[in-house]
Amino acid sequence: MTGPNPTGRGKSGWKIHLITGRNGLPLSPGISGANTHDSLGLEPLVRGIPPIRSRHGPRRPAKLHADKGYDYDHLRRRLRGRGIRHRIARKSMESSTRLGRHRWVVERTVSWPAGCRRPHRRHEREAEHFLAFAGVAAALIGYRRLTK
Q1: Contacts within 8 Å (CB) and 24+ apart, 141-146
Q2: C-alpha angle 122/127/128, rounded to 5°?
Q3: Which helix (H) or strand (E) segment is 70 a member of?
Q4: Are 68 and 90 in contact (CB under 8 A)?
Q5: In contact, 87 and 49? CB cutoff 8 Å
Q6: pLDDT (tens digit, 0 to 9) for every residue of the chain, 148 residues total?
Q7: Most buried of 5, 93, 123, 126 (most Cβ within 10 A)?
Q8: Rounded distance between C-alpha atoms, residue 33 and residue 132, angstroms
Q9: What would you report as the CA-atom Rg of the chain, rounded to the nearest whole angstrom?
Q10: C-alpha to C-alpha distance for 51 and 120, rounded to whole angstroms
Q11: Residues 96-113, buried b or exposed e (16+ Cβ, 10 A)?
């Protein structure tokens, strides 16, 4: 799950994708090669969101905020099919700055695994192992957030 990094002189690289809750709790981590488009990682992440337990039974998140990289009709249709409202900035029509108040929560949460050594530097060759450590880091971050 690595690919030539378009900004790093063609060296192999990877990126971490993450869906978070409104308060910054990581819900679904994922990885892909550095040369894959971000929009290709959205569907597996949405499928990986665990149901939230509530008094009214299990439920899924109701709204998703995303930047212009996810502005595709097929992604909008699939989110609607899952019952998730979307707020995706339109290319060449809207400014991404309006998403800033929602985006900083995700950017902050993506930076938290830097405190965990294994997900920060990729030591594993197998993508499944690395994804498992990213999941452990997400669980640790969630535990730390919930115990505060």
Answers
A1: 141/25, 141/26, 141/109, 141/112, 141/113, 142/25, 142/26, 145/23, 145/24, 145/25, 146/25
A2: 120
A3: none
A4: yes
A5: no
A6: 666 766 666 677 777 788 888 887 888 888 887 788 888 888 888 888 877 777 777 777 788 888 788 889 999 999 998 888 888 878 777 665 666 666 777 777 777 666 665 555 555 667 777 777 777 877 887 788 778 7
A7: 5
A8: 16
A9: 16
A10: 27
A11: eeebeebbebbeebbebb
- For the record, the structure tokens of 54 come out as 């509530």
Contacts 24+ apart (CB under 8 A), 82-85: 82/46, 84/46, 84/60
Of the candidates 81, 79, 61, the one whose C-alpha atom is nearest the C-alpha of residue 70 is 79
Tokens of 26: 């990581």
Max alpha carbon distance in the chain (Å)?
52
The beta strand positions in 36-116, using DSSP E, are: 63-66, 85-88
Give the separation between CA 103 and CA 33, rounded to whole angstroms.
Answer: 22
Token pair for residue 20?
A: 């978070």
Tokens matching residue 2: 């690595």
CB atoms within 10 A of CB 91: 11
